[in-house]
Amino acid sequence: MGALWDEHYDGIRQLIDVNPTRITWQRHPLKENSRGEPVADMEAEPLELSAWARISHQSGGVRGAESAAGGITANFSTYVVALRGADLRQGDVITADAGAIRKWKVGVVDELAVEGEPYAIQAPLARADG
Length: 130
Hints:
With 130 residues, this protein is mostly beta strands. It has one helix spanning 3-18; strands spanning 21-27, 30-32, 38-40, 47-59, 67-68, 71-72, 76-83, 93-96, 103-106, 110-114, 117-127. Helices cover 12% and strands 48% of the residues.
């Protein structure tokens, strides 16, 4: 991997290091069904997966200032960023080790890459703890 990839990887690592959160999630191992296709083995003990990540907010879109009963409203969405190797998939439910909201459902996972070589992933999050 080249210097440009190293810069991007180090940038994400430093971003995570500013406010790291340990996330965990479970995934059932795969087994073949009667047609030879891989499916989740719901009878097996789920695997416990984890990674260091950053859970943060970003503007959910461009909006003008809108008055509300509590003042000016903001349109923010929550997302997670992790280094490559974190096997997050859409639909996973992650548990974070800090903050008031502890469970999040993972949205579409985008792979961040330089010259075709992935260095990180990012995905939007939705509350999954009620």
